[in-house]
Amino acid sequence: MPEENVEFKILEHKLVGSDTVVFRLEDGTTVKVKVDIGRAGVATNLKNPDGSPQYNISADLRISVIPAGKKFFVPKSQLPQASPKESTMKPI
Description:
92 residues, mainly beta, four-stranded antiparallel sheet, 4 strands
């Protein structure tokens, strides 16, 4: 027997307040958590047992860790190589 599908109407969303929560760890590190809604929908053919709407919401999280010393390292091989500067000006 095939499983019954639940249909959802996609809901538009807008941010109210800040999308970032900032934590300070005891070693001075800062942790920033940015939250967004990937997709939100309300079921059109299903309700919760109490009669309230059934929602399906996916959240996107982005976590940034900023060390107390505010330093990071990148291998030289991953940095763009600067080409020798060529003068674009011509003598008069």
